[in-house]
Amino acid sequence: MIFGKSTARYFAPVWAALLIALVPQASLAQETPVSAASQPAAATEAAPAAAEVGAPAAGAVDDKADASTENVAAGSSAYTPLGPEWIKGQPKPGGLDVQPQYSPTGEQAYKLHVGLVWVMAIICLFVLGLMIYVMVKFRRKANPTPSRTTHNTMIEVVWTLLPVLILVGIAVPSISLLSAQYQSAPKDALTIKVTGYQWYWGYTYPDNGGFEVISNMMPEDEAKAKGFPTHLEVDNRMVVPAGEWIRIQTTAADVIHSFAVPSLWFKLDAVPGRLNEKRMMVKEPGIYYGQCSELCGAKHGYMPIAVEALPRPQFEAWVRSQGGTVGAPEPAAAPAAAPLQQPESGAQQPAADATTPAAATTPAATASPAA
Ligand SMILES: [Cu+2]
């Protein structure tokens, strides 16, 4: 009887569930392969969100909407730190959603997040609707003699298959995000080593001469005076080139810290004696804040992270201002060769000969003409 009369009614939820299962996948399929071509469009899309999050000084909104790299201190060869109008990734009071994302992985993750919220909402409403229907329709007053039905093949098949379809629909974009997060950086990517200290960060640039930048929280008064968020701004930021993959390696000098920047979808533990590695990309120039995310002692809450993404030329200007070097592929080979040479003993021999004094002072200089 149940079959004949209302079979169609039982099929309705099947279609609903199919829809639920396929919607997040379809929305994700559009942008799962993050190509260079899709980046400009995504960048302009993100710009309004940035304006919303950013500092009240709205003078630079036009620059942001453009998001073209030339707009940062155009034409200057010298480095000047970005001002508060360039703040893009930071928490805001009363914020409920995930921070606007400025990395390809972050954008992919944000889409999955939105899709999942919809799946959850639809399922919750569907179950709630069923419960209200049952409570009203089959209450004791309206239905004095309850049905003795114990089995219904159709219903059982439906309520087994539907959850399976929904879970498969969620698993596909979920696993592809997982694999995107664990892909390693391209071979020629810039490497930055992040070291957690109690209680500040150190950023080392092995590809640019190996200098280290020590980054401490900016004092509250100074941050306020300069228009930066307190407890997030630092004295020396981690400067990175925008729009390219970067290899971030984390370690710690004392206890476990965690390097986390929410708007870049980046979090990686910094563990003493270990070197963890993950790729990072900041799609557009700006300032992105994060915090140590592993309880590391008394001043755990006072070691913020500030990532400053700059166009390549400005990044290189910054590297030079730090006493670092910017070069072609050769410098990558030089550090590998240098340790084998035993700098001390290597320096003594030419000094004794006194034929090549230049080589004595700079062992790296001998390596680069050879390479
Ligand atoms: Cu820490």
UniProtKB/TrEMBL annotation:
Belongs to the cytochrome c oxidase subunit 2 family. The keyword Ion transport does not apply. Residues 1-29 form the signal peptide. InterPro entries: CcO_II (IPR045187), CcO_II-like_C (IPR002429), CcO_II_C (IPR034210), Copper_CuA (IPR001505), Cupredoxin (IPR008972), Cyt_c_oxidase_su2 (IPR014222), Cyt_c_oxidase_su2_TM_dom (IPR011759), Cyt_c_oxidase_su2_TM_sf (IPR036257). NCBIfam families: CoxB (TIGR02866). It comes from Tsuneonella aeria. This is Cytochrome c oxidase subunit 2. It comes from the Bacteria. Subunits I and II form the functional core of the enzyme complex. Electrons originating in cytochrome c are transferred via heme a and Cu(A) to the binuclear center formed by heme a3 and Cu(B). Its cofactor is Cu cation. GO terms for biological process: ATP synthesis coupled electron transport. The keyword Transferase does not apply. It catalyses: 4 Fe(II)-[cytochrome c] + O2 + 8 H(+)(in) = 4 Fe(III)-[cytochrome c] + 2 H2O + 4 H(+)(out). The chain crosses the membrane at residues 116-136, 157-178. GO terms for cellular component: plasma membrane. Residues 90-185 form the Cytochrome oxidase subunit II transmembrane region profile domain. Binds a copper A center. It holds the Pfam family COX2_TM. GO terms for molecular function: copper ion binding; cytochrome-c oxidase activity; oxidoreductase activity. Residues 323-371 are annotated as: Disordered.
